[in-house]
């Protein structure tokens, strides 16, 4: 049974979702299995950051309609902070924000807590990652909406 799911085809932003229902899936989603020592909710939380999102746009492929697709190998190679930089509290906060469709706020929280305070990246570098993600995402989605 997978611990997490990640959609192969992405419209707005990548998401890594905990498989709380212990569900199975078709090949339209990536099934993520973790080492037993890794908490799925914490990994899902630290995934949602500006650097990982920017690299998803760079490493993925853009298809008709502005869809971003990540093949299994591309998804596996996405740079991600170690889950040790997350916490149960961070996971809960990020989960609530994502459920409310507050993706930018979730990124703000993870960027500050994990990338800046945890990993010591400069706020300027993190802002550059966010700007890169937004530019690449907007270019992809606008290209897909042309008729």
TrEMBL record:
Pfam families: M_Eco57I_C. Residues 2-115 form the Type II methyltransferase M.Eco57I C-terminal domain. One of its GO terms (biological process) is methylation. InterPro entries: M_Eco57I_C. GO terms for molecular function: site-specific DNA-methyltransferase (adenine-specific) activity. Keywords: Methyltransferase, Transferase. The keyword Methyltransferase applies. It is an enzyme of class 2 (transferase). Its EC number is 2.1.1.-, 2.1.1.72. The keyword Transferase applies. It comes from the Bacteria. This is DNA methylase. It comes from Mycobacterium tuberculosis. The lineage of its organism: Bacteria, Bacillati, Actinomycetota, Actinomycetes, Mycobacteriales.
